[in-house]
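Protein: Fringe-like protein (DUF604)
Species: Rhynchospora pubera
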Amino acid sequence: MKTMQFHGTEKTLKSKVLYSLQSIKSLLVFAFCFCCFFSIYSPLLPVPGKIAFSQQSSIPFPASPTTIPTNLSHIVFGISGLAYTWDRQLHFNELWWRPGEMRGYVWLDKEPAADATWPETGPLFRVSTSNSSHLGNGRNASAARIARIVVDSYQAVLTDPNAAEVRWFVVGDDDTVFFPENLLAVLRKYDHRQMYYVGSMSESVEQDLEFSYNMAFHGAGFAITYPAAMELARIIDGCLDRYSHHYSSDHLIQSCLSELGVPLTQEPGFHQIDLHEDAHGMLAVHPVVPLVSLHNLNYIKPISPHYKTQHEAVKSLVDVSCLDPGRTLQQCICYERGPGFIWSVSVSWGYSVQLYPWAVAPKDLVKALTTFRSWRTQSLGPFTLDTRQLNLDWPCDLPVLFFLNHAARDGVNWNWTTTEYSRDLKQENGCKSPSSSEAFKVKTVRVKAPQMAPAEWKRAPRRQCCKTVRIEGGEILLVQINQCKPGQSSLSQ
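Structure follows.
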């Protein structure tokens, strides 16, 4: 291959380069002699062996990270609530709150009624404070009250003899459902001695445009380290006055932390669920991160058709998460091959199974079916997650749906679980293809999986692999999940 040449410049460039090299050589020789002379005779330089570093130039090294992993005793929860609605929202809090293991407060707008009995199954209550002088009344004042929960919680622990243990403040709404082990798995990724603000944006783009893509939505919950809370406490009242036009508590918090230079660290396991109708499409394709929280559950249909109420449906998910917290909602994809057909199987562990009577690429299976609508306009998007259009007029495009109805530890290997998912009997087969008719013969999907080790979240994220086989005359589809072996992919069987 011929090299590119610029005609008429080669000779001139060579002579200039040679001249420059000679000049640099002479300069280096002079500099060397100069340094040698002054290193011997100059009284301005320190005597060898007695070099002293000035105090201004010394930089202290940070202390080595603590060897004790973050646990529930290191977290203070701050739950926002209203005195007149708390008793109606308590059932969501009771699903995840662990008396004696967790600490924190429900921050109310006022004292409960004198004849009210405060339940022992939830956190203690306190009445919020608001020292800002320019907020007036209405929803702006309510937003300021809720925004102060981080600071109120911080100030409450200052008198606690165990205050030195506190690393994180975790804030949520009265209907936020947390998954504690997964919350810990996320927080352990970060150095609690630094200033962190951890949470997630809304699923509805219209909400993010209204507020910010870099704001943790309050209902999904967010976490702030102790150092960040301490700095926030110093500026909170003046900051709330400066942003008194904001009517959202999470927007106020984000604005104040922005003044401190603390950005949002996105963790997509926090779920605001700014959606309407049916959230199944989103929950069935959870990203490869721990499920940390769910919110706005009163505004969507029960997440499983096996239950009449949302509380019962969510309780089923919380209960199964106790068997294997890290695997909860984790998606796994594999394919069942039979005479004349290929089925696509998408498992959302502990929740549901989607069985497609045809081959669907993994890149499409990880997109959420649009069973839901946006928060404000109740439209088909846009969303902050990839979606696939759900066309109810084309039944051959719809998967056969199965939802959890049983979960237990494996009777042979205690480190394994067996979960069973039964078909949604309300779903009828409107597609007359042979493959679809065969798929509707399956009554139960039985999934066997090893318990996911917490160390999995320290590795590079990767969906695990699975393989399938039909048993019991084809009425049961058995799925076994394992870590992917070298050379294995979702298409392997």
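Remarks: Residues 306-482 form one domain.
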